[in-house]
Amino acid sequence: MNSQVFQTPIEYLKGVGVSRADVLKKELQIFNFEDLLRHFPFKYIDRTRFYKVRDINADMPYVQMLARLTQKEIIGEKHTKRLVAQAHDDTGAIELVWFQGVKWIEKALIPGKVYVLFGKPGFFNGKAQMAHPEMELYSTEVQQRKGNLTLQPAYSSTEKLKQFSLDSKGIQKLVAILLEQQLKDIHENLPLYLINRFKLIDLANAYRNIHFPEDATKLTEAIHRLKFEELFFLQFRLLRNKLLHTQKFKGNIFGTVGELFNQFYHEKLPFPLTNAQKRVLKEIRLDTQRGVQMNRLLQGDVGSGKTVVALMSMLIAIDNGFQACIMAPTEILANQHYQTIKELVGDDFIEVGLLTGSTPQKARKVLHEKLENGQLKILIGTHALIEDKVQYKNLGFVVIDEQHRFGVEQRARLWRKNIIPPHILVMTATPIPRTLAMTLYGDLDISIIDELPAGRKPIQTVHYYDTQRLRMFGFMKQEIAKGRQVYVVYPLIQESEKLDLKNLMDGIEVMSREFPLPDYRLSIVHGKMKAADKQVEMDRFIKGETQIMVATTVIEVGVNVPNASIMIIENSERFGLSQLHQLRGRVGRGAEQSFCILMSSHKLSRDGKIRLDTMVKTNNGFEIAETDLQLRGPGNIEGTQQSGVLDLKVANIATDQELLISVRKCVEGIFEKDPQLTLPENQILHQTLQVKGQGLSWNKIS
Ligand code: ADP
Ligand code: MG
């Protein structure tokens, strides 16, 4: 908000007072005028007219319609039981669904009669739908009723608030008082040229209409304006930080591509690089010559070869007299990186170290010394490697492998190790959608490996129901007879550890019966085992002594076993999409055709079915990430919760993608043309930013 008035504590609003202010603070986090102004209605009730099926869309508020009921039917059993009815008017048909009170509602509905339907319109599979509509028989009485002729806002409230007469209506009254008193103090915060170019309504109008819409069109315009503004200042802050960052932080200049890089490239690299890998290396090469700190995000699908790109970038750093490190989120992954890199560089090339929480004190001391005297060139580890005790001689390049995202704060801690901060390359484990990357990593440059190494056969994926288990066994036997190995994975969900273990034990029993000694051998790995025992079991599988690896999650099997070409995921409906994709990525690493079998019960939720169908349909991680975002919304994507970046009130990264992309372009354009914001028409942005430091949600972003 652009006027100090809005920072006034809420108790000073007429009609509030001390005790009401208290509950408003506790229950709704409304501390001042601005918070109340930004406590938007969660729905609107439109009793102004009857809508036609043809005219409704999913963005509409609660509306009323007139339609003739033609059919009603209870379908599904127990958990999936629902009442589905069909209705139509002269423009089309609409489906009505109830999940609760099914029997009772079913009895009351009379096919053939015309009803007033009232509810929130939606679409499912392209068909108009309304869930839990209120139903009222159409009658002359209804016809003559003179209703409230505006869109009514409905505000979220709580039992506690209601004790203070602050139900939806009570809050509405306060907002009305606030608007009447302070509307004149809401000043425009966007430059006029943007208002014109994007055909936005002004800010005061937007606030008035989001609370008390004059009509549906005005409401849409108000929401659009506030979404635009929210995304605009989000991107504005991100890109401004990026700009300030390049001005503030010098970077080491990697002037040459030297001996180590060339020797590795010509003598050690076991395969030709893909074009995408070459392109990304070039991008990194350019970044590290500019004298500005690199901050780059590397995205690529599972198996696209990010590790080798990271390694070759580190070799350039070492060639220029610097050290490098890789920071992984877990010990297992750190271990895995260590093994992979040791294998790629071989002996007697450069010294590589591993530092994790379980590195013994003695070995730790040796590592510290070698780091300080510069003998150790690459250090791989977990958080342990940013502990204050760890001192590098000359850290020049940092790779952050972000299975679970490191925050900005942790990234910054690495910089403090040096006067000139090291270049930073952030790698994501699986792709994230473009719009999400734009926001979560909006202050980074982005590189994408969009090509898999040649000769990879796409993994074939099928979905079997538990009743098709025999077919699965048959398939396993056939592939094992050809010399292949199989992973069988069970979900591990922390809340019910006991149940998970039982699942696994039952599974092991079934597997041992179906695949008996001496023809078959099983490896078993789960979380309750000692680390040493796990290692033994994994080694047996790696060496090919066992053909089947039964495990709770394959993260625990973390190793690359190219001969393992079948991934079976039990209870696959209980896994998230990105986890399924990660798991599937464990196969398809060798020359053989690989397969993934998703086992599930018949009891599938709608989202569960979409997840499995998506896995069957595509191997493309970017596509999968996109579907995941659509299904779960931005707040539930792994790693986004703590970030605060997605604390959006009006806009939604999943559903407002188009708007976000055009806003991003617009902000980029502004900084390109006027990086210091000196043009007169941009002065307003300076002012907005200055006031914005105080209470607004978007100050959390930087
Ligand atoms: P991710 O991007 O999932 O981290 P990795 O870096 O682990 O992928 O690479 C997956 C596998 O592909 C590794 O075994 C790696 O050696 C191999 N690989 C990487 N690049 C190429 C390439 N250009 N040609 C052939 N194989 C490659
Ligand atoms: Mg990897």
UniProtKB/TrEMBL annotation:
Its EC number is 5.6.2.4. PROSITE patterns: HELICASE_ATP_BIND_1, HELICASE_CTER. It comes from the Bacteria. GO terms for molecular function: 3'-5' DNA helicase activity; ATP binding; ATP hydrolysis activity; DNA binding. It holds the Pfam family Helicase_C. Keywords: ATP-binding, DNA damage, DNA recombination, DNA repair, DNA-binding, Helicase, Hydrolase, Isomerase, Nucleotide-binding. Residues 287-449 form the Helicase ATP-binding domain. It catalyses: ATP + H2O = ADP + phosphate + H(+); Couples ATP hydrolysis with the unwinding of duplex DNA by translocating in the 3'-5' direction. Transmembrane segments: none annotated. Belongs to the helicase family. RecG subfamily. This is ATP-dependent DNA helicase RecG. It comes from Mucilaginibacter frigoritolerans.
